[in-house]
Specification:
276 residues; three-stranded antiparallel beta sheet; 11 helices; globular; CHAT_dom
Length: 276
């Protein structure tokens, strides 16, 4: 997607979001507070300065993030709707963290990781892999600045299971992980487009992450490892094409059902939550 706001988009932002209302929108888009114009002469001047900051790279995929946030607030607006259908500028970045600590059921995380790398091959996307992940590895979000964070780990109740320094199970409350991601979003230029929770019983955990990413993808009930890997492959193949995780997940659910009838529960249990 082009980094430059079009004159039509600037005009629509000017009309709907005067400076005193613009700060909430910019915050949702991950725009750095220090780059917000301080003394614009007019609303048009304000948005012209914001457009210039975006074109200079103030926010990764800034135009897409801004128009996506505007579309969420005004879903019926034709200008915002038309603009947000384009994918974020490549290279898309995916951070994959997997954890299979001792004493837990084998997840076959390697199969899912291979599905991601295979699906993204040739797309120009970048994937960073963190095997045997600890909860503190979440800090890679700040250094790598991924569009999508993909977690392959066990879910137990309202916790996700990572490894500790000895390779033993470390149960981390999902609420704490979500609060950390929201903190990253508020205090840095980092804003996740998507979060994929590849764990069982995701319906209990996924709602806790709303606001930590624009789109959260999870699954209800038990998650078969082979079917999870097949779904993941279809997911990232489609994501590289459309740039929107929710749309990619919906298509992947149809494709995984066609791949193997035994994977129907993965399709039926798909859960996609979008930031309000």
């Amino acid at each position: 997607m082009d980094a430059h706001l079009t004159p039509e988009e600037i005009g629509e932002l000017t009309r709907i979001f005067p400076p005193h209302r613009a700060h909430h929108l910019l915050n949702r888009a991950g725009f750095p507070p220090g780059a917000v114009p301080a003394f614009p002469y007019t609303a048009r001047d304000f948005w012209e300065q914001v457009a210039a900051e975006l074109s200079h790279g103030a926010v990764s995929d800034g135009r897409w993030r801004l128009l996506e946030a505007a579309h969420r607030l005004y879903p019926g607006n034709e200008v915002f709707r038309a603009a947000r259908t384009a994918p974020p500028a490549l290279p898309m970045r995916v951070l994959v963290m997997s954890a299979e600590p001792r004493g837990t059921q084998h997840l076959e995380a390697g199969r899912e990781v291979r599905a991601i790398t295979h699906a993204l091959r040739g797309s120009g996307a970048e994937a960073e892999l963190v095997p045997a992940a600890r909860s503190t590895d979440l800090g890679r979000v700040l250094s790598f600045e991924p569009h999508v964070l993909h977690l392959v780990c066990h879910g137990e109740g309202d916790s996700l299971v990572f490894g500790d320094v000895h390779g033993e199970a470390h149960h981390v409350p999902a609420r704490d992980l979500a609060d950390t991601l929201r903190h990253y979003r508020k205090t840095s230029d980092t804003g996740l487009h998507g979060l994929v929770l590849s764990s069982c019983d995701g319906e209990h955990i996924a709602p806790l992450f709303t606001g930590a990413a624009e789109v959260v993808v999870a699954h209800r009930g038990r998650l078969d490892a082979a079917c999870a890997a097949a779904f993941t492959g279809h997911l990232y193949e489609r994501l590289a094409q459309v740039g929107d995780l929710g749309r990619a997940a919906a298509t992947a659910a149809h494709h995984v059902r066609l791949t193997d009838a035994s994977c129907a529960p993965v399709a039926d249990g798909l859960l996609v939550l979008r930031q309000e």
